[in-house]
Write a structure and sequence with these properties.
Helix content: 10-25%
Radius of gyration: 20 Å
Order of helices and strands: HEHEEEEEEEHHHHHEE
Structural class: alpha+beta
Shape: globular
Strand order of the largest sheet: 1-6-7-5
Number of helices: 7
Distance between the termini: 28 Å
Length: 280
DNA sequence: CTACCATCCTGGTTGC
DNA sequence: TGCAACCAGGATGGTA
């Protein structure tokens, strides 16, 4: 589920209850996530203070003053729930990991599909996979059209697939790849290597724009994504193409009966949505 | 090295 | 209404 804006939303919700706070104890109720939670996870995390919370792509990294800590990925259906009041935490199906903080706050990792990941990292984490090979942060200053163009230059895959590749650019998933391509007016089946420099520039602007707007909206809630307080994001109401097959393109005034509106195709098993008139 | 595919898992929606 | 098939925001490891 969660792409960069959803993960960023979760990170921001996590900050007030985790940053600078001491983890008193951790309870793991199910270890068999996408990658099994190691047996020494609880021991390594408990009694330590989190002094740094970082988002990198779709990952959240929580570090202590030694620069080590743990890494969280929400997979497709992962959520973080926070209980700050005194009322007792309610045991819900798929609540796999519970962090109890020094002040009594509870932080819960909930993940029905168990595609999520939670694992220990050492101070060298940035130099190890997946971070060592991950593409740039799309919202960083250094992410430029030229940089993206160089990444795409040698890729013999459709541009849509290239954008989903975390080693090309970090954090973009299916929704925002579709939306960014729409804004940049690039057809999803175009070969990545065929993207020209000025198109790459436009694509960078579009990616930044759509991600920023989505973060401002608290992400997109299709099914699972929730902010840490349980409320929904609302960027799904701002989609131009995603999940809008047969609906009119928001910006072209052509006849819906002639164009058929937004089209859906499948690329590498994933739906792509696009406007056949605007995107070429 | 690159690209494609199946797979991990549950739950909600769709169609018969 | 009931049930089966299909679909979903992601990452990875194997294979070609």
């Amino acid at each position: 589920m969660p792409e960069l804006p959803e993960v960023e939303t979760v990170l921001r919700g996590l900050e007030p209850v985790m940053l600078g706070c001491l983890i008193q104890d951790v309870r793991v109720r199910r270890r068999d996530l996408r990658v099994a939670i190691s047996d020494d996870f609880e021991k390594n995390i408990s009694g330590k203070r989190i002094v740094q919370l970082i988002r990198r792509g779709k990952y959240i990294i929580a570090l202590n003053d030694q620069g080590a800590g743990f890494c969280l990925h929400l997979g497709m259906s992962g959520r973080i729930k926070i209980f700050t009041d005194k009322k007792s935490y309610e045991d819900v199906l798929h609540d796999h990991v519970l962090f109890r903080m020094e002040n009594g706050d509870q932080i819960v990792f909930h993940d029905p599909r168990r595609f999520g990941m939670l694992y220990l990292v050492d101070a060298n984490w940035e130099k190890e996979k997946p971070f060592s090979v991950m593409g740039e942060e799309p919202l960083s200053e250094t992410f430029s059209g030229l940089a993206l163009w160089h990444k795409l230059e040698s890729k013999k895959v459709p541009i849509k697939n290239a954008l989903l590749d975390q080693n090309v650019v970090a954090g973009v998933g299916n929704i925002y790849a579709c939306e960014a391509l729409y804004q940049a007016e690039i057809h999803p089946t175009r070969l990545a290597s065929s993207i020209r420099k000025r198109e790459a520039e436009l694509l960078v602007k579009s990616i930044r724009n759509v991600l920023t707007n989505a973060i401002d909206a608290g992400g997109s809630t299709l099914r699972d994504h929730r902010k840490t307080d349980g409320s929904m994001g609302y960027f799904q109401y701002g989609f131009s193409v995603y999940d809008r097959e047969g609906k009119p393109c928001p910006s072209c005034d052509c006849d819906l009966k002639k164009t058929g509106g937004i089209q859906r195709i499948v690329q590498s098993g994933r739906s792509s949505f696009f406007c056949p008139v605007k995107q070429t």
